[in-house]
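User: Can you help me understand a structure? I only have the sequence.
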Amino acid sequence: MGVTPKKQAVVAEIKNWLTTSKGMVLTSYRGLNVATDTEMRRELRAAGVTYKVVKNTMLRIAAKDAGIEGLDEHLEGTTAIAFSAEDAVAPAKVICGFMKKNKLEDAGILTVKVGMVEGKVITEKEVKALANLPSREELIAKLLGSMNAPIANTVGVLSGIIRNAVGVIDAYRAKKEKEAA
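Assistant: Let's start by predicting it. Here is the structure, written out as tokens:
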């Protein structure tokens, strides 16, 4: 009995996700209700992250075809994939933030199994560390702020020198006026 064309298409699609995604998080979602699932999917979509429920067998075959090792031991029970072709950190940030906000991990409702960044498999612990990193925009803002600080300090020092010079000239002018009077 061979693999059906429909299953081959599913495996090819999953393989495409695995090979083109910059960031990916595999989750287990036991007991996730429809309202919570819908809210999470909305947050993921807003961050440019796609979220799909997958069959472990199909994911196992796709990972093997893509040459990705380290996923097999995590493919038990329910599995869903959150992935982004643009942002390596977004799937981890949104999933971990949503789990924390809704206290889903403590209840065992939504848990992180494993993640991937740029084709490299990372542990659950590394996914959570990735989620706690500042965003690209925050890092750029910090960089610009640190670059701006010396300039602002220089401007402050120069304006202080000018203020002092004006004060000295004004005192000298006042002294000359007093002497002339």
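Now, to help you interpret it: Helices lie at 5-20, 34-46, 56-66, 90-101, 124-131, 136-180. The CA atoms of residues 149 and 155 lie 10 Å apart. Let me know which part you'd like to focus on.
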